[in-house]
Amino acid sequence: MGPAHQGTAQGAVPPGGRLHHGDDAYHNDPTSLHVQYAYTEIADECRHTIMFAKAIERLGSRAYRIDPLAHALGRVFKALAHGPLIFGGALFVEEILDRLQREMMNDESIEPVVRSTSRIHVIEEARHIRYAREEFHRDWRRRGPVNRAYSRLVLGVVAYFSATRLVHPKVYARVGLDPREARRVARRNPRFIDSKTELSRKVVSTLDTAGAISGIGRRFWRRAGLLGR
């Protein structure tokens, strides 16, 4: 754990008690360890995006864009999200990918380039996951009931759209399946639901224990197949 992360763990929080990646880092002291770590994490994510793009090229495949609705909602989320939503959403996505890639990097039947990128991502995301978890808890504790209710709903929507788009329809088409029928079958497949539940078990426990999965928002988690059958 480097000095910047030690600052995070020790609570070197900027004025106002929060830090939301690039957004609030922009408004705070760049000489603080906390802000420097936020910028380091942003740089890490940029490198990871390039790494995965290069892997896609190496495999002779192509990148598939998310559907227009999810893309539009992502832009809204980017504009309106605050601390618990940013870190809760990041924690959800990163925890699921971490669990999945830990299996992939040890599976000798998978292409070496996929195993290598998975291993790199698992190693480097470990500190990101810890950072997101710490920041979520720190920010969640100071939020009032109205803000928490809003956050629960939006986190549920984020979880739903993320979990229901783990496999792009065009991937099914690429292997000779009818995309619409394949998605329908997968959505109802108990083993697929069990897999998503298992992949998200740790982050669901973290957020649920904090009280971030309840009310209407919880319905989205269940509809996404993240709370079991």
From TrEMBL:
One GO molecular-function entry: oxidoreductase activity
Q: Which InterPro entries match?
A: AurF/CmlI, Ferritin-like_SF, RNR-like
Q: Where is this region: Disordered?
A: 1-25
Protein name as it appears in the record? p-aminobenzoate N-oxygenase AurF family protein
Origin organism is Nocardiopsis alba (strain ATCC BAA-2165 / BE74)
